[in-house]
C-alpha cells in the first residue's frame, strides 16, 4: 500500500500520524520540515516564558533598568544587589539604546521598569512617554528618579502620574534647619529627611531610626489626584529655589507641602515610585554617616538603604498585595450555594483573604473587612469576623425586599491593593403556599369576626322567641 493511502487510512481510523512519516511524503516541501520544527520548539518554550508572569507569584518578575550611563550600575550597585538578592532579574540598558523594547507581539517582556535616566530627551527603540504610561495602565510597576537636570520627558511622565516637579530647572530643596551636618557647611541642599509616612504596609513595621539623605529637586502633589501619597516629606523650614541666587520673590514650593519621595497606587493596583533625587539610590548615600542639624545624635549609617529596601518591597508587590479566594454563601444549616434566596432567610457569607509575603501567601489579619448586601444601595452592611487564619465570615437575615441583590466587598486600605468582589443573587418573595395559615397578628380580627357572628345568632334567637 502506498504511503499516501496509509495516511488516508489513518485519518479515517483517527489514528495519530507519526511526524517523521508525515515529513517523508512528497507533497510536503522540505522547507515545511523546518517550519514544523520551529512551531514545535515554540510550543515547548511557551511554559518557560509564561512562568515569569504568573499571578500566583506577583513578585517573580523581570525588571528593565534604563540608565543614563552604565557607570550608575556600579555607583548604585547596593540598591541593585538588594533587588537581585530578592529574586529579581534586572536587565540593564542605556535609555537611548535603539534596540530596547518593552513588548513584543502584544506581550510585555518585563513586569517592572526603573528609570534612572533623568537627562534622557528621547528613549530609544519603540519606547516613549505614551508607551510607559500604557505599561502602567496594563498593571505594571514603575520607579522614576529625577534630578536637577531632569528632561521634559521625565517631567511629563511624572506629571501624568499626578506629580509636578518645580518648574525652575535650577531649583533644589534647601533646608537651613533640617540639613545634614557635613565637614563643609555648603548650601544646605543635602537634606536629612525623617518625616516618613505612617504606614507599616508601605515602609514595614521596623522603625527607620536614621534620617534619609536627599539631594535633589522637590515636587508637589496634584490635589485632584487622591491616589498620590507623600512617603518622605520635607520639613516645615524647607523651600525649593536656586541655592546660587538670591531670593527675590517667595518660592513656589515651601514647607511640608514639598514631597521628596512619593508613591502612587493606581486603580488597577499598579504601583509607582517618584523620587526627586538619583543620588538617593547611590552607594555613597547608603554608606554615609548622618547627623541632622540641631540633633546631637549621629548615626554611623544613613537610613537610605532600609528606606529604599522596604519601599521597593512595596512597589514590587512583595508586601501589601492581597488576593481573595473561596467566596461562599449558603443558608445556615446547609452546605450548598443556592440559586436564589427567599426573603427572611438566614444565610452565612465567607471569604478567604491572603497577603503575599514575597515568597508565600500568608493569611491576612484585619478587623475592618466589610460586606454589603446591595441592591441600588446597601440593605445590609456587616463587618466580617475572622479567626486569624485568613477566613472571614458573617451571617445575617435576608431583608424583606425581593429583587436582584449583590454580595459586595470594596476593601481599600492605605498601602494595600484594592479588593473589589461582587456576586449576584436573586431574592424572591414567599410563594402562595409558604405563608402561615393563621397569622398571629390577625388574631384580634379573627376574634372580632367570630364574636360578631355569635352575637348576631344570640340576638336573632332572643328576638324571635321573646314575646
UniProtKB/TrEMBL annotation:
This is Dolichyl-diphosphooligosaccharide--protein glycosyltransferase 48 kDa subunit. InterPro entries: DDOST_48_kDa_subunit, OST48_MD, OST48_N. Residues 62-315 form the OST48 N-terminal domain. Belongs to the DDOST 48 kDa subunit family. It comes from Lupinus albus (White lupine). Residues 329-466 form the OST48 middle domain. GO terms for cellular component: oligosaccharyltransferase complex. Keywords: Endoplasmic reticulum, Membrane, Transferase, Transmembrane, Transmembrane helix. Coiled coil: none annotated. The keyword Transport does not apply. The chain crosses the membrane at residues 443-465. Component of the oligosaccharyltransferase (OST) complex. Its main location: endoplasmic reticulum. Subunit of the oligosaccharyl transferase (OST) complex that catalyzes the initial transfer of a defined glycan (Glc(3)Man(9)GlcNAc(2) in eukaryotes) from the lipid carrier dolichol-pyrophosphate to an asparagine residue within an Asn-X-Ser/Thr consensus motif in nascent polypeptide chains, the first step in protein N-glycosylation. N-glycosylation occurs cotranslationally and the complex associates with the Sec61 complex at the channel-forming translocon complex that mediates protein translocation across the endoplasmic reticulum (ER). It is found in: Endoplasmic reticulum membrane; Membrane.
